[in-house]
Amino acid sequence: MRALRWISFMIVLAGLGWRFPLFHVVPLQQAVAEKKAATFDPTHFAGTFWTNRLLASLDKAVSATVLLPAIQSDPATAKKQFARSVGMGESYFYFVAGTGRVVSVSDDEIRLAVTATGTNADISLPAGPVFGNSLRDGTGLLNVSDYPNSQDFNDISAALNHLVETAVLPPLRTQAKVGVHIAFAGCAEVADESSDLKPLHVVPVMTRLTSNQ
Amino acid sequence: MFKSDHFKRFQSFIALAVMIIALSLLSDKFLTLANGRNILLQIAVNLCLSIGMTLVILTGGIDLSVGAILGFAGAFAAGLLKNGLTLKCFGVVLQFTPFGAMVAGLLAGLGLGLINGVTITRFRLPPFVATLGMLSIARGFTMLWTGGFPITDLGPQFGFIGAGFWLGVPMAVWLSALLVALFVIISRRTILGRYIYAVGGSEKAAAFSGLNVNLIKLWVYALGGGLAAIAGLIVSARLDAADPKAGLGYELDSIAAVVIGGTSLSGGRGSILGTVLGCLIIGVLNNGLFLLDVSPFWQQVVKGIVILIAVAADKMGAPRE
To answer: Which residues, 6 or more positions from A184, have their beta carbon under 8 angstroms from its beta carbon?
Structure first.
């Protein structure tokens, strides 16, 4: 009787195990390959995104000659018209392009005057390490809800910033001399309007020397 | 005497009723359906822990390791689900299904609880010391298993028990209600339940009566570990992540709920339903103080005072030895 009870119990257990399997046995090599394929590679993603989508969208950036006067005259209207924000955060982003004359160069930044007669800096481009999420969030091309793992989304930012540091900034640092004209396109994050609008801190996707003087 | 007994039996219930009436008058957000559901969801985890703690305290013991077992079981299940179990000697990986990972987490909790029981009964260690050791061991294993990092993105199937709903009620609440019903029956209607009270009432008398005291204690500590594991699975499922620091300090909330619920720390007296009331009192207190915008520091002070009052009330009503 006791044995019969045990056998019945084991049969029920086996049936449950067949209906609701606890695990699947997978060859080690296959499991490694599957995991590698499923693992998000932010560097690869950022490279593809940069080439195929970011550079292709530069024509969508608002012209600095339009944006900067608009910010000067009425920041609230300029924000409503040209900025985009992400989630419930206070900060917002401008995707901006234009040409400016270099007015100062330091280890940290390169400052440009965009207006023809201006001597004050309107735009600041970084010369050193790049931080923040300007490029990821500023163009509107990437949406956080497409990334169930927020760490992946954060890693994209870091990879994009690394691309700026390695591909965009080295030639910019070489070319940037006071007086030269530089074309740029990039994104600016405005977290504090009192300090971030004048000059506008743009993380560049592209910079190009347009004239030596 | 009759009045005093009646008051003692219902003192937790009266305290809860008074708190609910007072908070309803003080905050218009308190007595709403959404807030009620919120309170039940918040106490679900403590309830799972406290049911096990009640059984342990009824035998005259204590389990300080439940928070650590909660953390380990949640992380163990999450790790198996995300990374599987590699058996290099066989050249295979066991890729766990969400159900399989939950079963493994539950077994891990039962196993650790059983080890608690073995060290207490076999090696005669005081429960305080044995479970304090397990607290440290389980925390260490959790860090080793996770590398100190949270295991995230566990998926909707795993997440259902923590974040899912059935008939508009969170699954975690259903699960804890089911466990309450099950353990009320076990404690009142089964031989094991009667033996637990007998061991707590007088261990010597229980042993002289022919009860296998050690076996009963093994069961109780294993069940405590298993219930902590269920709590760990709920926490991981709810957050969609297993945090290696999950459950830190939860054992204190659990002990507080048991004591406030009228279970005597010296064992033999108390009930699961009393513990449910204890959990509700702590949950309502936390929620009410939050709604009244009381500083978290003051919240801790108030909670401590409530525990002291509960223990003092228990001592005053207890028979003299």
So the answer is: A97, A98, A99, A100, A112, A123, A125, A202, A204, A206, A207, A208
Contact flag A22-B85 (C-beta cutoff 8 Å): no
- Dump pLDDT digits (tens) for B126-174: 999 999 999 999 999 999 999 999 998 899 999 999 889 999 899 999 9
Number of independent structural domains in chain B: 1
Parent domain of B181: 13-317
B222 exposure class (CB count in 10 Å sphere: 0-12, 13-18, 19+):
buried
Residue B34 belongs to a domain: yes
The distance between the two most distant Cα atoms of chain A, rounded to a whole number of Å, is 102
- Backbone φ and ψ for A85, nearest 5 degrees, come out as -125, 160
Distance CA B258, CA B273 (A): 10
What is the maximum span of chain B, computed from C-alpha positions, in angstroms? Answer: 71
d(CA B129, CA B152): 33
| Interface contact flag, B95 A23, Cβ < 8 Å | yes
Which residues from chain B sit within 8 angstroms of residue A20, using beta carbons?
97, 99
Q: How far apart are CA A212 and CA A197, in angstroms?
A: 27
What distances in angstroms separate CA A26 from CA A15, A22, B84, B86, one per listed residue?
21, 13, 10, 10
A6 vs chain B: nearest CA distance in angstroms? 20
Residues B238, B240, B246, B249: what is their CA dihedral angle, to the nearest 10 degrees?
-20
State CA B2 to chain mean position distance.
33
Is the pTM value of this prediction over 0.90?
no
Nearest CA in chain B to A19: B99
Is the peptide bond between A199 and the residue preceding it cis, with omega within 30 degrees of 0?
Answer: yes
Give the SS3 label for residue B35.
helix
Half-sphere exposure (Cβ direction) of B251: Cα atoms closer than 13 Å: 20
Calpha distance B202→B190 (Å, rounded):
19
Rg (CA), chain A: 26
CA distance B237 to B251: 20
CATH number at residue B150: 1.10.3470
Which tokens go with A138? 């500023």
- The ipTM of this complex is 0.80
User: Would you place residue A149 in the very low, low, confident or very high pLDDT band (cuts 50, 70, 90)?
Assistant: confident
Residue B3 resides in a domain: no
CATH of the domain spanning A41-211, picked from 1.20.120.140, 2.10.109.10, 2.40.50.420, 3.40.50.300: 2.40.50.420
Tokens for B123? 């090696």
CA distance B313 to B265: 12
Whether residue B320 has pLDDT greater than 90: no
Which of B93, B152, B153 minimises the CB distance to A31? Answer: B93
